[in-house]
Structure formats: structure tokens, C-alpha cells
Design goal:
three-stranded antiparallel β-sheet, alpha+beta, 3 strands, 74 residues, globular
Length: 74
């Protein structure tokens, strides 16, 4: 069973690495993650090789990357 609260993850093969795991320590919301800019890039690069929590991709609930974007270009 998955948590009801969406959080950031990184797809690696057939799993999703939980980016909010303390071993990685990134924010749970995509907007917050994106606001870190390049400061998050090192953590993202090493995320796949950590022992952080992983869940199977099959059946993982996926949501819109940014549910309420502050602006968009049409």
C-alpha cells in the first residue's frame, strides 16, 4: 500500500527511488524540488546508488509533475 501524500521520486529501472528518504533528503513536492535548481542535481545524481526506500514502478500512483503550476505558456 502506498502513502496518500504524493512525493517526489526518481524512476530507476522498474522501481521508484523515494527522494524524500533521509539518505537523499530532497523535498516532497515537485515545485519545491524544482526551486532548488542545480543545488538538487548532485542529490539526484547519487539517488540511484543509495539505499534509499524504493517502491515497484508497477502500480505506483503517478500524478502530474506540477499539479498547480504558477504559470504556463500556451
Amino acid at each position: 500500500m502506498f502513502d496518500a501524500v504524493p512525493r517526489t521520486g526518481l524512476v530507476v529501472g522498474d522501481e521508484v527511488v523515494d527522494l524524500t528518504d533521509p539518505l537523499i533528503g530532497l523535498p516532497g513536492g515537485m515545485t519545491s524540488l524544482l526551486s532548488l535548481g542545480t543545488d538538487a542535481s548532485l542529490a539526484l545524481e547519487r539517488a540511484a546508488s543509495t539505499g534509499a526506500r524504493r517502491i515497484p514502478l508497477e502500480g505506483a500512483p503517478l500524478t502530474a509533475p506540477v499539479p498547480r503550476p504558477p504559470s504556463f505558456v500556451a
